[in-house]
Write a sequence for this structure.
């Protein structure tokens, strides 16, 4: 969601009209407005304790661990570390191809890799399920 700077306290969107709203502000008015717009979740990137005095925006450096506060509408907030990158691999019964892909990622991803590799399995057979469980043991980034 993007809205140009304005003096208005509300954004020109309808309630619940945006799936996910990402903010980088500890300001209660901003968070309340984000919750008004979000149909599914609000992600707050502001560091714990808020932004330093005078800071308008604080983006993390590459070396910083970032914690995100995901607030799903109607559910309790969930805090977790944000990955540096997400790689999504769709698959359906492609055990051999997926295995080769993961080996290639093992060889090329930086050490340590602070991201995640998400395998989206489209109802593959039992062989894929057992191999995924095996691969997760040696690849903590695999989801």
């Amino acid at each position: 969601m993007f809205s140009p700077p304005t003096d208005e306290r509300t954004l020109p969107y309808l309630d619940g009209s945006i799936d996910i709203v990402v903010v980088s502000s500890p300001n209660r008015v901003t968070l309340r407005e984000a919750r008004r717009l979000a149909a599914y979740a609000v992600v707050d990137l502001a560091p714990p304790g808020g932004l330093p005095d005078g800071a308008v925006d604080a983006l993390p450096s590459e070396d910083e661990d970032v914690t995100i506060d995901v607030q799903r509408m109607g559910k309790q907030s969930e805090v977790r570390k944000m990955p540096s990158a997400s790689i999504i691999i769709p698959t359906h019964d492609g055990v051999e191809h997926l295995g080769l892909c993961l080996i290639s990622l093992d060889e090329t991803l930086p050490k340590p890799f602070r991201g995640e590799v998400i395998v989206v399995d489209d109802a593959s057979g039992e062989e894929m399920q057992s191999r995924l469980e095996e691969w997760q043991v040696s690849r903590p980034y695999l989801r």
User: Anything to note?
Assistant: Confidence is low (pLDDT under 50) at residues 54-60. Residues 86-138 form one domain.
